[in-house]
Amino acid sequence: MRAFPLALILSLATPAVAQSMAGMPGMDHGAVKAGKGIGVVTALDAKAARITIKHGPIPGVGWPAMTMTFKAAPPALLKGVRVGQTVAFDVRARGMDAEVTSIRPH
Predict the structure, then answer these.
(1) What's the pLDDT at 19?
(2) Which residues in 43-65 are b (16+ Cβ under 10 Å) and which e?
(3) What pLDDT is recorded for position 96?
C-alpha cells in the first residue's frame, strides 16, 4: 500500500484528521515552532484575518511544500498584500495551528 504524500493529507485535513496526525513529524501539538517561508498568496480574507499561501518547504516547522491557510497575527499584516503576490513570511506553529507573524514582498 502506498502512503499518501503529507501535502495531500494536509490539504484534506479536517479536525479529526489533524488530531490523528499528532504523532507525525512536525505535528507535535505541544511544541511551538517557528520558521520562514516563501510562497504565493492564493486567497485573502481580511475580515477573518486569514491568508492562504502556496509555499515551499519550511524546515523550521518540519513542513513540506503545500498550500495552507494561516491566521495573520496581527491582522494588520494583510494590508497591502494581494492574491498572486509572491511573499516571504515568518510563521509560528503548534501542530496544525499556524499563524503568519510577518510578511513582505519577495
Answers:
(1) 42
(2) ebeeeebbbbbebeebebbbbee
(3) 74
